[in-house]
Amino acid sequence: MEKVKQLKAKFIGYVKKDKHRSRSKLKRLFFGMKFTDGLFYKIMIYLMLVGLGYIYLYPMMYMISNSFMTMSDIINVSVNWIPSQFTLENYRLVWDAIDYPKALLDGVILAGLPALSATISSALIGYGFAKYNFPFKRILMALMILTFIIPPQITMMPTFRMYANYDLLGSIMTFIYPAILGQGFNGAIYILIFYSFFRMIPNSLMESAQLDGAGPMKIFLKIAIPLAIPAIIIVFLFSFVWYYNETYLSGLFLRGSDMLTLPLRVEQFIINYTSIYPEGSRARELMQSAKLAGNILTILPLLILFFFTQRHFVEAIDKTGITGE
Asked: How far apart are alpha carbons 200 and 277 in whole angstroms?
């Protein structure tokens, strides 16, 4: 009897250990060792990513789908996502109305030249703040940051009057001059990016170059700039996209000019068309597909630009430590 009790106790012990092991395995499977490598954690992450992806992709999918719809598909409430008949008429309408090749060229020039000017000036200013000590340095940095905090709409009217006095309205120089002086669109961000990057360069490297007889400008061009390629890529792309997408200040400073940004040309096309027809008319509803086609043609150059530069862009983001805007 004693042996039977011992065997029974051992058996019960084995069963309890087996249950405990099974529970531990299940717990480890669902929650992992530190909760960050378990199945439950991964499911939650994927659900969150799918939800965020849907929020961001839904407008794009809606624009692409509806831009290929005919007028009959827009009127037909049973047609939601897949057009009954794909058509390029909406794209042809916008293409001819805004003269898309010329509008694209003007948009690239209006965004590219100020972006290049902003990149050069921001690199010089950021390098000066990072590597030199001079009077009122902290005050000047505070004023620089203040230019980003203050909304451009507040300084819009004084700036407009200044440009009018100097006969600059309707010219691309209204973008280039502030960019040269480090005060373009979001210029303070570009300076801070270069400032933080140049601060990471060891001063001993600069001192050794000075001992070899290199002057300040040669050190900047031969040492600082080659090391700052990631920051240059980030600043130029950010600046290009912001200048490219700007419509409010562009419409104010470039009015009367033959050169307009591509989003502004599409916006004017929509305004001119809708002004012909009264509010709530069927013609305005039928214009919806053309509006979406215009939006697709507007963002298409940026998508192509990112497609060819994404590898350099991601590498630059990683090296500069920028996490988002």
From this structure: 59
